[in-house]
Each structure stands twice: as C-alpha cells, then as structure tokens.
Amino acid sequence: MKVAIIGAGSLGQSIAKGLLKNKVVSSLYLTKRNTHSIKGFDDHNEVILTSNNEEAIKNSDILIFAVQPRHLENILNTVKPLLKENHVLISVITGFSLDKIEAIVGADKYIIRSMPNTAASVGQSMTCLSPNTKGKEKVELAKTIFNSLGLSMVIPEEQLQAATVICASGIAFWMRLIRATTQGAIQLGFEADVAHELAMQTCFGAATLLKESGRHPEAEIDRVTTPGGCTIEGLNEMEHQGLSSSLITGINKSFEKINQIKN
Ligand SMILES: NC(=O)C1=CN([C@@H]2O[C@H](COP(=O)(O)OP(=O)(O)OC[C@H]3O[C@@H](n4cnc5c(N)ncnc54)[C@H](O)[C@@H]3O)[C@@H](O)[C@H]2O)C=CC1
Ligand SMILES: O=C(O)[C@@H]1CCC=N1
C-alpha cells in the first residue's frame, strides 16, 4: 500500500506510528508545512517526509487527510487536479461532511470519513468509518488499514459526531479517570509512580475482562462487591457524588459543542 498522510500532526503521527509498527505500507509520505519536528520518522526506509502535498499525492494511492478542519478546503482545492480515479481519500477531520468533500473533489471519488483516536500509535484505536456511495467499494480496504491500528467499525455518517465524542475525546475522558484514581491511590500512601501503575493496569484489566468475557459491566461489579464490604461503600459514595451522572452529562456537553463547531 502506498499511503500519504497529509498533515502529520498529532493524529497523523499516531496513525503513521501504527502503520509502521504493523508494516502495512510499502511507502508512506508524511507531509507537514515544516517537517523538522517529524525528522525521526525518516529512520524508516519506507517513509518520505515532505512539505510538498502534490508530490505525496502523485506518488500514493491512499490519501489520509489529517489537517485542522480550517485547512482542508484549501488543500483539496489545490490538489484536486492531481486526483486520479483510483485514489482513495480518507479524511479524519472532525465535522467536515462527505457532502462538503464531494462538492470540492466530486462524488465520483472514493471518499471515506474516518474517526480514529490517538491510541492508533499503539495499535489500540477504536476507529469509526463512514464512506460516500462510491467509497463503499473501498470500505474493506479502509478497514484493513484501521484494523491494523486497533478495531474499526462502519457506522452511518450521522453518528460520526457522537463517535468522535465517545472514541476520540474519550481518550481524554479515560485519561482523567485514570489520573483521578492515581490521585486517590497517592492519598492512600502509594508513591506516584506506583499509584499510576496500579491505576493503569487495573483499568486495562477491567476493559480486558469485558472484552474477553462478553459480560455486562454490572455482572463484573457484582463479582467484586462483597455484601457490606468496601467496594459497595466506595461505589455508592461515588454515585452519591454523581460519578455516572457527571460522565453522561459531560459526554452530552461535548456532543453539544461538536455540533456547534462550524467548519
Ligand atoms: N487529536 C485527536 O485525537 C483527533 C483529531 N481529529 C481530527 O484530526 C485533525 C488533525 O488533528 P490534530 O492531529 O490534533 O491536529 P494538528 O494541528 O496536530 O495536526 C495538523 C497538522 O497539519 C499540518 N498542516 C497544516 N497545513 C498543512 C498543509 N497545507 N499541508 C500539510 N500539512 C499541513 C500542520 O503543520 C499540523 O502538523 C483535526 O481535523 C481533528 O479534528 C480527529 C480525531 C481525533
Ligand atoms: O477536541 C476536539 O475538538 C478534537 C475532536 C476529537 C478530538 N479532538
């Protein structure tokens, strides 16, 4: 696969790391206005760093656009004359609709909107994909790419904003939960690095339990909750303080905000 990542910033670099780790690309162009900060990537033989988007597009089949939303329209207009029939355009850009992309490059192009998260860099992204009508023919190819970076799921475009909150912003939400658990552990007397390790591995174990057992979270909660014991004491206090409610409210606020952001 000959891939170009147009705009190798935070997310673009996460995707690049995952693709390189899994050796799924024969060539990987990474573009950025100033490539100095991504110099380390050219240790890989298959990587070409450039600030020339045209060069990257001419030499690649799969184009992953990962710039900030305000830059996409201009870039698409500039590179449009270079787009060939077989190019697959993947946009990871928040809120930039398939209609809008089609209006610039044409509905006859393979276009897939994708919402990965930064865990792509460690092969654990949850990526949601929505193709345009033509792009449906290439959705399996997109799944191959994003399954190499974690898990992928095809969803209707109308749900992509919600998926952004749950999966992309979700990384930040889970980080804060892990951090808060760490702070609790420090208060109980653990050194900060030990507390962090305990919190991380317990979080990883909880998610793995659900994935491998297929059981409901409440079933797993019941398994650790001794009647009259310390788990239910802590859990009930967390709920009195609004744990579930604050998460749900936060997710809804995040969703309101994403729907207000205009590109
Ligand atoms: N950070 C995240 O977890 C997620 C971000 N997104 C979306 O991905 C997109 C990128 O986000 P980030 O990586 O966080 O942004 P970023 O600002 O870190 O990266 C964008 C990169 O594009 C480069 N760039 C700007 N103009 C360019 C041009 N003309 N040609 C080539 N490169 C150019 C910039 O130098 C920058 O390195 C955004 O649209 C965001 O909404 C989506 C999901 C998750
Ligand atoms: O915070 C944001 O608006 C973007 C979209 C999802 C992750 N980062």
UniProtKB/TrEMBL annotation:
Which is a Gene Ontology cellular component entry for this protein? cytoplasm
Superkingdom field: Bacteria
Residues reported to bind NADPH: N53
* GO molecular-function terms, A-Z: pyrroline-5-carboxylate reductase activity
One GO BP: L-proline biosynthetic process
Uppermost EC category: oxidoreductase
Per the similarity annotation, which family is this? Belongs to the pyrroline-5-carboxylate reductase family.
What is the official name of this protein in its record? Pyrroline-5-carboxylate reductase
Gene that produces this protein:
proC
